[in-house]
Write a structure and sequence with these properties.
By secondary structure, this protein is an alpha/beta fold. The protein has a domain of about 250 residues: Rossmann fold (3-Layer(aba) Sandwich). It contains 21 helices and 16 strands. The strands form four sheets. A six-stranded mixed β-sheet has the order 4-5-15-10-11-14, sandwiched between helices. Strand 10, helix 11 and strand 11 form a beta-alpha-beta unit. Helix 16 crosses helix 17. The longest helix has 20 residues.
Length: about 500
Amino acid sequence: MMDLMFRSTRNADDIVTASQAVLKGLAGDGGLYVPEYLPKLDVPLEAFADMTYHETAYAVMKQFLTDYTQEELKDCICRAYDEKFDVPQIAPLREADGAYYLELFHGATIAFKDMALSILPYLMTTAAKKNHEEKEIVILTATSGDTGKAALAGFADVPGTRIIVFYPKDGVSAVQERQMITQKGENTCVIGIRGNFDDAQTGVKKLFGDSALGRELEAAGFRFSSANSINIGRLVPQIVYYVYAYGQMVKNATISVGDPMNVVVPTGNFGNILAAFYAKNMGLPIGKLICASNENKVLYDFFRVGTYDRNREFILTSSPSMDILISSNLERLVYRIAGDDAAVNASLMRELSEHGKYTVTPEMRERMKDFYGGFATCEQTAEEISRVYQNTGYVLDTHTAVASRVYHEYRQACHDTTPTVIASTASPYKFARSVMEAIDKKYADMDDFALIDELSRISHTAVPRAIEEIRNAPILHDKVIDRDQMEQAVREFLAI
């Protein structure tokens, strides 16, 4: 069988293997790598009901990462999904309030990013060996809160790598920030930006696209790569948990083999819901893909009118990981609905870069009819946390609450009773202040760690190890810079 190759979304002639795409992260033209075609699941749907998470991961990922040997891929999976996760299922399903919450927060940093960032370092170091890469890999990442810590935890002290994370100084939760600035590892660097996530993400993309800097890095023995969801090595592992969730829904007799399930995903950068779209195109019976936004509802507007327009006020919300106006992974969907036409996609991305917006054709909109967009305000998010807790005792984080609110509005509007999986993307402990104040205003005066202990008491759950570790950890990264100083900061860390 021929290896599945990957192309840039902006240049049909830029074709690489899976391991090269993982290694490069971003195409040289600023495009994202996508598979030449979406492979079909080659395991009968009923078989997934009896598979472990590791077995499911192998069944899905081998379809994409075809130049990795069976041994290499299984080793990556085995090393990633180990005791770092606090439950053997890795991604358990919890029924509550008429939906099934897919808990993606049982990893080392209690957010869904662990699902992919636990395996990416192994995929990347294996790719480096396969491609005889002798340069030190410098992971350059912008984060809206969760990617940063998950990437830091994954790459800390991994030989042959360094990692630099930029985050918006006032745009993450107190726990998110503390998780990053206490990160150990000689090869780690965490820097706050005076600006928002889009500033950090745009700055990182600019550094990737700077060919003169690239040549300097090369001469000094370094090469950039990315741990953001723009890296296909991030996206492919995310497909796995939707296939696993379907298997669990069949196993629990919630659905029969072949029946559809809907999926609701709170999203900012569009990677997590794109993974569900890929799973659907691989043959997984997913009905509606419900895209839940917060008040930065650029994706909601896109699905409603077909125009992507980032020319709007950036709003800081209680779900900071979704505070994004440039949804990088949407480009992979746009490429797909353009009939895999790199020239059409490149033209639209130029419009976005030059004018801050683009509009897709009616034909392209027709190809996205499986998507439904909704959004929730901060007030509605708080109401949803309170409602679900009062009714069930189950505590949602702020991002999952956005998804839950949008789901209930969708169900009311469309009368769709299809069994539904909601991606629960973070532990409530990560956003304890917003969560506890939503449950009861009396918590407003308590400090962050007292709130965490109170959350443990009222939810009857143990404080996660990831929180206990940072409670008294020393601050190791305190650098804060202006957004135009990012290149200088990289040079200083690498001593070039």
